[in-house]
Design brief:
Elements (H helix, E strand, L loop, with lengths): L8 H30 L9 H38 L10 H56 L4 H15 L4 E7 L5 E8 L3 H4 L4 E3 L5 H8 L3 E3 L2 H7 L13 E8 L2 E9 L8 H46 L3 H12 L6 E8 L4 E9 L2 H13 L3 E2 L6 H8 L3 E3 L4 H10 L1 H9 L4 E9 L2 E10 L6 H39 L3 E5 L5 E4 L1 H7 L3 H4 L4 H4 L3 H5 L4 E3 L9 E7 L2 E12 L2 E8 L1 H36 L7 H33 L7 E4 H15 L4 E7 L5 E4 L1 H17 L5 E10 L2 E7 L22 H4 L8 H11 L3 E6 L5 E8 L2
Helix pairs in contact: 1-2, 2-3, 3-4, 3-8, 4-8, 8-9, 8-14, 12-13, 19-20, 20-24, 21-22, 22-24
Length: about 850
């Protein structure tokens, strides 16, 4: 409501006494002047003098009473003049002089009234012009004051304050009110008022533009609405009867800026008003000034907001790009968003493996409330992606943002019904407005960013900013994920590059995309030669290698079963175990060189066969001797009886030795053999071993000790070294079927002691000289004339010598015997 006041009823009533007084004065002058002149009749003056004085009296009466006063004075002058002054000549006749005097009286009245009337009109016009100039100056001054106040106002609130102070003062109003158009142009929202009782304003804080209200009409039509009195207002707008503040004059003008109508301005007055054109123009000018200033302030505020948004987004982008540590980065981002955008900010992520939604981070300006929220998060129910009620699940599922300018109470009530912890949460916080935007990568949503305001409604600009922030956060999350994936793949590739198994990756076209060093070692083909080519082009045996391998599915790679295939490579024949897994991008093959395992397996098989043979022979002898001794149908001489007993004893010892070797080999592999080295004189040890060997050796074998004279004392475990020496002597005797000399030599020098066993037997081929120390390995019977063994003696001997800090080596040529050298540290 707007009102302007100018008193007019009392002025009209006060005009009547003034007019009566004016005419009383005029009549007094018109009658009194001629009366005074008539008194000259009692003198002896000549006629011309009274005549002139009558003319003066007529002119004076005309000046005071206008033309009417002049004619009254003519009448009051003519009769006395003819009766008293003209009678001297002729009382009964009007002579020429009397007629002339009458004419002069009338002309004087007419001329005087005309001249004085013109002068009075000119003076009135001048006064009116002065008044109009003063009024215009006053209006211009008031407008200038408003303009000055608006010029110094930069923020929208400062503009509103200026309009409601200087604007109301310039309009000579009692109060003022400003309302702006809603974004959809359908509503007027009161944003500021002064001089009104709020109980009358609150019902109209928002009202429709289409409504039958003064301000709605002004905004709707673009023209001012001027109401002189409360009665006129109630007649034109009956909807306001009894609902608006009692008043008098009212003015409503639209706020029209450069881009159209932005709202309306109301002035209300303490009295009834008249609104002549100049006053209307002043009110419209005030509205125009207010609109332009408010529009300018809004543009300035929008520009400032845009700068702040750009600065915020720039800072957020820099923050998101500063680190690939996802959780810490997102936590700092949420802290940046509060309280600039909202009171609360949270980021939730979808756990795709389980379909659950996990709140990753939450932020609030108050650290205590943030900790409370984190504790509540731990106690809240688990949210799944298929939850039809949860807002976050809906946003992630649909990929569409949700803006609740005012969160419905029904939504909060339903949340409390579903989760008792929500009731406790709502006791601590007030959710007035909320925004949830998806975090997306392409068409896939993997999380959501939520803003919650407790005290105010979030705006469209903040909704847009939240979407921008969500887009940047999504990029950061995706970059972090890609980095993690790239890092994982790089680590996997690094591991695959150095893993012992060969790894070959083929794409959809069957071309090699990965070929690690182990694959190169197994196939003899370098990585550079294989990449980008078909494997059959670089490995001739590839078809043979992979033909029998059954490909497992990527979902169940553990079901891949290895297939062992022999292949021919540039470095010789190999046994390769192959497994394959097919996945979306191709096929990956794992190759393992199991040549040694195959050889070990063969050696084990040979050992089983050998051990069976070795055990069966003494067992058969023992069994045969025992059965013979148990016979009662024959008479056995005592000498033969003793012979059978000796067979049982010797073969039992042989069985014990074989079993002991097997057990010792297992203990050595498991690290369960204790070796204690002490200073040991080797000469007595060798003599003892030779003496025992002579009892078992054939007659054609000669055993002796050769020593360079120096005492040979080594750091050794005497029992374990005796076992080694016995093994070496047994082998020397066994592999010298034609007889010959077996010599044990002792030598010392350079802190070492050397024990050498030399024979003249069959010898060992160079290619086999290292393999004879392998577990279960035996020379080809064709090279040993059928002489065999368990394949464990030399393995055990080298292991024992190694544990004493020494070494066991061999030198040999086929047919020229063998030399076994035990090298030990000197004591």
């Amino acid at each position: 409501m707007i009102a302007d006041a100018a008193p007019h009823g009392h002025a009209k009533a006060a005009g009547w006494p003034h007019l009566t007084m004016h005419w009383a004065k005029a009549m007094a002058v018109a009658l009194g002047g001629p009366a005074l002149v008539t008194l000259l009749a009692f003198t002896s003056v000549r006629t011309v003098v009274p005549g002139l004085l009558y003319v003066v009296a007529i002119i004076l009466a005309t000046a005071v009473g206008g033309r009417i006063g002049g004619f009254v004075a003519v009448a009051a002058s003519a009769y006395p003049f003819f009766h008293y002054f003209a009678s001297r000549y002729d009382r009964d006749q009007v002579n020429a002089e009397g007629a002339t005097a009458l004419a002069i009286f009338i002309v004087a009245a007419l001329f005087g009234s005309e001249v004085i009337g013109r002068e009075r009109d000119a003076r009135a016009r001048a006064e009116r012009a002065v008044r109009e100039s003063e009024s215009a100056l006053d209006a211009a001054t008031r407008l200038q004051n408003v303009a000055d106040a608006l010029a110094t106002a930069h923020a929208p609130q400062e503009v509103l304050d200026a309009v409601l102070t200087e604007g109301v003062r310039a309009a000579e109003a009692r109060g003022g009110l400003i309302a702006t158009l809603s974004d959809d142009g359908e509503w007027l929202d009161v944003i500021a008022s002064r001089g009104y009782d709020m109980q009358f304003i609150e019902p109209f804080l928002r009202f429709p533009v289409s409504g039958n209200y003064p301000l709605s009409e002004a905004v709707r039509t673009g023209e001012g609405v001027f109401i002189r009195s409360e009665a006129e207002r109630d007649e034109r707008y009956p909807e306001l009867v009894g609902r608006s503040q009692p008043g008098h004059g009212l003015v409503c003008v639209p706020l029209v800026g450069e881009r159209g109508t932005i709202g309306g301005l109301v002035f209300s007055f303490p009295t009834d008003q008249e609104f002549p054109p100049e006053r209307r123009a002043l009110k419209i000018a005030l509205g125009r000034q207010a609109a332009l200033a408010l529009e300018r302030a809004r543009f300035s505020a929008a520009e400032q907001t845009l700068r702040e948004r750009l600065a915020f987004l720039s800072e957020a982008t820099a923050l998101l790009n500063s680190s690939l540590e996802l959780e810490n980065t997102l936590e700092r981002l949420t802290e940046l968003a509060v309280p600039l955008l909202a009171d609360w900010c949270a980021i939730s992520m979808l756990v795709e493996e389980t379909g659950e939604i996990e709140q990753l981070v939450v932020a609030h300006q108050d650290p205590e409330r943030k900790r409370w929220a984190e504790e509540m998060r731990e106690r809240s129910r688990t949210i799944r992606i298929d939850d039809e009620f949860d807002l976050t699940a809906q946003v992630i599922r649909t990929g569409e943002p949700v803006f609740l300018r005012e969160v419905p109470q029904e939504l909060l009530d339903e949340a409390v019904r579903r989760d008792p912890n929500a009731a406790k949460a709502l006791e601590e916080i007030t959710i007035r407005s909320a925004i949830t935007v998806p975090l997306r990568s392409g068409d896939r949503s993997f999380g959501a960013l939520t803003l919650v305001s407790e005290s105010r409604e979030l705006e469209d600009s903040e909704f847009e900013l939240a979407q921008e922030l969500g887009a940047r956060a999504a990029i950061a999350v995706e970059n972090a994920r890609l980095y993690r994936e790239a890092e994982r793949r790089a680590e996997a590739a690094l591991a695959l590059a150095y893993v012992g198994d060969g790894v070959v990756l083929l794409d959809h076209d069957g071309r090699v995309r990965f070929w690690n060093s182990a694959a190169a070692a197994i196939t003899g083909v370098r990585e550079a030669e294989a990449l980008g080519r078909l494997p059959t082009e670089v490995v001739r045996a590839w078809e043979e290698l992979t033909r029998l391998a059954e490909l497992a599915d990527a979902a169940t790679p553990e079901r891949a079963r290895p297939v062992t295939v022999p292949i021919e490579t540039a470095s010789g024949d190999r046994w390769v175990a192959v497994t394959g897994v097919a996945f979306d991008e191709g096929v990956v093959y794992a190759l393992r060189d199991v040549t040694d395992e195959q050889a070990l397996e063969r050696a084990r098989s040979d050992f089983v066969a050998t051990a069976s043979h070795e055990l069966r022979t003494p067992l058969a002898a023992v069994y045969g001797a025992a059965r013979t001794l148990r016979r009662t149908d024959i008479e056995m001489p005592a000498e033969q009886h003793d012979r059978f007993l000796e067979i049982i004893v010797s073969e039992t010892e042989r069985l014990t030795a074989i079993v002991s070797q097997i057990l010792l080999a297992g203990q050595l592999e498991e690290g369960r053999v204790d070796v204690t080295t002490v200073a040991t004189d080797l000469a007595p040890l060798v003599e003892s071993a030779l003496e025992s060997a002579r009892l078992r050796a054939p007659d054609q074998i000669e055993l002796r000790l050769g020593q360079n004279g120096a005492r040979a004392v080594a750091l050794a475990d005497e029992d374990k070294l005796r076992q080694v020496l016995v093994n070496l002597l047994d082998n020397a005797i066994k592999y010298s079927p034609d007889g010959g000399e077996v010599v044990v030599e002792l030598a010392r020098g350079h802190g070492r002691v050397r024990l050498t066993v030399r024979d003249r037997g069959l010898g060992i081929p160079p290619a086999e000289q290292e393999r004879i120390f392998e577990k279960f390995y035996r020379l080809d019977p064709a090279l040993t004339r059928g002489v065999g063994g368990s394949g464990l003696g030399l393995f055990i001997s080298r292991e024992l010598v190694s544990r004493m800090g020494g070494s066991l080596t061999v030198r040999s040529q086929p047919g020229d015997g063998a030399v076994f050298v035990v090298d030990l540290p000197a004591a």
